[in-house]
């Protein structure tokens, strides 16, 4: 294809591409819808939506008034799916990035109704597959109880490297970040 033909096609296609490009407000609305899809409608209707910026700070995309905070994607997970947390749950999540232990006296709750994933079921700091593992852990839609005391005393096995994710299980068992995961349909 000669240079004139390429220039003609580029000029002809550019307006079409511009017409279909998402505007920042459309992208923001899509991220809000994505975040809210993690929770039941009654919670999502009044939840705050936040997004983590590249510098690690959280920015609000929408203010809510029911104490729930939803995020469009969990960037620490191999499959970045949305999640919604109550205030204690969000405090629990923030402790990961701050490398500190969550308050065991404040159990948190979370909805991940589009499912979730994890690099490891035993290492809360894993950021890639452990040696010998061929795939990350896929978790169907679920709720989480974010509290090491409750999870570690649940009576469920604490150190499963390959849990059955279709029944309740403990993730990160035996650690300060142990989570009780309960699949829902």
Euclidean distance between termini CA atoms: 54 Å
Main sheet makeup: 8 strands, mixed
Q: How are the strands of the largest sheet arranged?
A: 2-1-3-4-5-8-10-9
**Average pLDDT value?**
86
| Rg, Å, rounded | 20 Å
Judged by helices, strands and strand pairing, the structural class is alpha+beta
How would you characterize this protein structure?
It is a single chain. The protein is α+β, with helices and mostly antiparallel strands and 185 residues long. It has one domain. The chain is built from five helices and ten strands. The strands form two sheets. The chain has an eight-stranded mixed β-sheet with strand order 2-1-3-4-5-8-10-9. Strands 6-7 form a two-stranded antiparallel ribbon. It is globular. The N and C termini lie far apart (54 Å). Residues 7-12 and 14-20 have low confidence and may be disordered.
Please tag this protein with its features.
185 residues, alpha+beta, eight-stranded mixed sheet, two-stranded antiparallel sheet, 5 helices, 10 strands, 28% helix, 22% strand
Write the layout of secondary structure elements.
Blueprint: H1 3-20, H2 24-36, H3 41-44, E1 48-52, E2 58-62, E3 69-71, E4 83-85, H4 87-97, E5 108-112, E6 116-118, E7 137-139, E8 142-146, H5 148-152, E9 169-171, E10 179-183
Parallel strand pairs: 1-3
Antiparallel strand pairs: 1-2, 3-4, 4-5, 5-8, 6-7, 8-10, 9-10
